User: Fold this.
Amino acid sequence: MSSPSAPPDSLSSTIGYESAIECTWDVIIVGAGVAGCATAILAAKSGLKVLLVESKSFPREKVCGGCLNVRAQDALRRLGVDHELQAAGSVRLSELHVQVQGVGRIWPIPSLLSVRRSTLDTILVRRAIECGADFLQNTTAVLPAENGQVHDLMEVELRCCEGLQSSDPLSQFKPKAAQARCLVIAAGLNRSALRLQRDWPSDIAPDSRIGVQSLVSLESLSESAPELHGMLDSNRGRLHMLSSHHGYVGICLTDGDLIDFAAALDPKRVSSAGGIGPAVCEILEECGIKTHRAFADCHWMATSLLTRTSKIVAKPGVFLVGDALGYIEPFTGEGMSWALDNAEMLAPNLVRIVQDPRTKDQAVRDWEVYVQKQRRFRHRICRWVAKQARHPTRSQWVVQACHWIPGFRTRILKKAVQ
Ligand SMILES: Cc1cc2nc3c(=O)[nH]c(=O)nc-3n(C[C@H](O)[C@H](O)[C@H](O)COP(=O)(O)OP(=O)(O)OC[C@H]3O[C@@H](n4cnc5c(N)ncnc54)[C@H](O)[C@@H]3O)c2cc1C
Assistant:
C-alpha cells in the first residue's frame, strides 16, 4: 500500500524497445493519458494486438484538476476500474463554490470524483496491461515526415528516451519505425507526435491561456495559506472555482490528502506578476483570500497554450483522440469525459479496420462526423461558460442569475458538471 501522499507504485514496460519495433501491431496508441489508456483497454479487450507508447516514466503527474464528472465515472466503471479508484482514496465532491472576485455562491452539484492524474493514469495503464495491451514507456512516438504507409501498415517512429531499455545504447538517438494497422494519437495538447507532419494544422486562439497545476499537502497550507487551509479543511467535499480578469483557479482535495490547485492563466499576466505562483496568488487575493510568499513558491507545472483545435481529426488509419483533437475549457470534468467518450466511439472502428482494411476511408468520414457533432452540441455550454469566465462582470451576473433562478442553475450545472 502507498503511504497517504506518496505517488502510486512505479510501473514497468511490458515489452522492450527492440521487440516493439520487430512486432506488427494492430494498433499503436501514442500517449498513456485517459484517452490513450481507455482506447488501449477497449481495443485489447476486443482481441486486438495493442502497443501503448508513453514518453514519460510512470507514475507521472500532469496538469489537471483531476475532477471526474458523472459521465466520466460511468465510463470508468465500464472500463472496470471503479473499485481501484475508490481503493486509491479518490475524494467525492458534492458542492461547488464559485467566487468571481467579490461575488461568491455555494451550490450542491452532481457528485464529482477527485483523483490525482498519477493515480488515475497508473490504474488505467495497469488495466490496459491486464486486458492484454503491451506498454512501452520512456519512448517518444512521432509520425514520420513522409507518408509512413507500407501496404496496409502505418509507420510511426519510436525514440527510446533512455538507453536502458535498448541493447544498443545509441539507439536512443536513432528513431526506428514500428508498424501497425492503425495509429491512435492520444498525445494530449503536446503536438510532438505530429511535429514532422505539415498537413495536421491546429488553430491556437490568440487569447489562449496556459494551464498550471500544483499539488500541496493540506497540512502545509496551515502555514503558507491559513485562510485556504481553513476553507478546505472545514468542508472536504467542496470544489472551489475562483475567477478574476486574468484567469481562474480550481481547488479541491484529492487522494493522498493533497490539495490540487489547477488554473488557467493569461500568459502575459504570468510574466507581469513575476511567475506562475504570484499570478495564482493575485487571483486568490482578488477573490478575498490572502496567501504567504511560501505558497507562491511551491512547485508549479505548466502546459503550452490551451485553446486549440485540430482542423484534421483523422486520416486513413490514423485517428486523433482526447486533447489531441482540441482542448475543452473550463475544467469541470468535460476534458476527461470527452477523452473517454472518444475511446468508446473509436474502438469498434479500429476492430473493423483490422478485420477489413477497406473500411479505412469510411472510418475517417465517421470520425469526422462524430467529432464535428460533439464539438457543435456537447461542448457548446463549456465554451459559453469559458467565455463568460473571461469577463468578471458578466460572470458575476451569471453567478447571481444561477442563484436566483434555480432552473437556470440546474441546467448549467447539469451540462457543465454531469
Ligand atoms: C489546468 C487544467 C485543469 C484541468 N482539469 C480537469 C478536470 O478537473 N477534469 C477533467 O475532466 N479535465 C480536466 N482538464 C482537462 C484534462 O486534463 C484533459 O482533457 C485530459 O487530460 C485529456 O486526456 P488525453 O489522454 O487526451 O491527454 P493527456 O492526459 O495529456 O495524455 C497525453 C499523454 O501522451 C504523452 N505523450 C505526449 N506526446 C507523446 C509522444 N510524442 N510520444 C509518446 N507519448 C506522448 C504524455 O506524456 C501524456 O502522458 C484540465 C486541463 C487543464 C490544463
Q: What stands out?
A: The two ends are 32 Å apart (CA to CA). The mean pLDDT is 89. DSSP finds 15 helices and 19 strands in the chain. The first strand starts at residue 24 and ends at 30.
